[in-house]
Amino acid sequence: MTQTFGRRLHAAMGERGPFCAGVDPHPGLLAAWGLDDDAAGLERFSRTAVEALGDTVALLKPQSAFFERHGSRGVAVLERVIADARAVGALVLLDVKRGDIGSTMQAYADAYCDPASPLCADAVTVSPYLGFESLRPVLDTALAHGNGVFVLALTSNPEGPEVQHAVRPDGRTVAGTMLGHVRAANAAALADGDPLGSVGVVVGATTGGNGEDLAVGGPLLAPGIGAQGATVEDLATVFGPALAQVVPSASREVLGAGPDPEALRRAARRTIDDVRDLLIRASAGA
């Protein structure tokens, strides 16, 4: 029986530290690395990142859009990135942010959550804003295969609050409602003794004291460290008592150190060390 994603992530965070490195080969970074903005440059960039970071970080997060923009050759590179990262022990979170209904959502689930697909990753990001139950095909398919799902909840983009902070008739925010659904989705796994549920949420590290209960029983992906303006110290303010479940994520902060593989490793390890230090201090002050 395949271990649940929650168990595997918990073990990886303990061994390698709580950090997710993005693999975002956008044109600016390709140019900064001296690479052409084509499929060959994409492959060189991505495979260098995997070589440097795949045995260092708990999670690697390829952003699918930057591969898709190169057409079928780009998707082929993404397939190799997923396979290579998993081969060196990293868990792969494929950042696709899909959100649809019915048979279309099942097709996304088949593509990203079923091991029969070459695009299957350990976890995938999804958008719940067609209603949480619209995610059911992805949730069911991922969990059936021991994979995970990260649900967008409180994002760091300035447009997010007009939807996520809206208040429902019952007094809860829309984001709070989504957090409640995720909490319920993890209840059975926690009752079975898993240290971490397999359904996580995405909460931007730039969202400040948001007033929501972020203890959902699953991992809390926190993008925004570094180039987007958040610091490791901000995590304590945003996540409070749920800090131990946080997986900070950074892309440009690490990838900007390339293309030298050792420089990429050093950049990732600095963030990992900073997060570990924060957790130690938070635990000591509890």
Describe this structure in words.
With 286 residues, the chain is an alpha/beta fold. The chain has helices at 5-16, 27-32, 39-53, 64-68, 71-87, 102-113, 136-144, 161-164, 174-191, 234-239, 252-255, 261-285, and strands at 20-23, 59-62, 91-98, 123-126, 148-154, 199-203, 220-223, 246-250. Strands 1-2-3-4-5-6-7-8 form an eight-stranded parallel beta barrel, surrounded by six helices. The longest helix is centred in the C-terminal third of the chain and has 25 residues, at 261-285. The radius of gyration is 18 Å and the shape is globular.
Brief write-up:
It catalyses: orotidine 5'-phosphate + H(+) = UMP + CO2. It contains 12 helices and 8 strands.
Highest-level CATH class:
Alpha Beta
**What letter string, H or E per element, gives the SSE order?**
HEHHEHHEHEHEHHEEHEHH
Outline the low-pLDDT stretches: none
Strand order across the largest sheet: 1-2-3-4-5-6-7-8
* CATH topology heading: TIM Barrel
CATH superfamily: Aldolase class I
Alpha-carbon distance between the two ends: 37 Å
Q: Over the alpha carbons, how many angstroms does the gyration radius reach?
A: 18 Å
Number of helices: 12
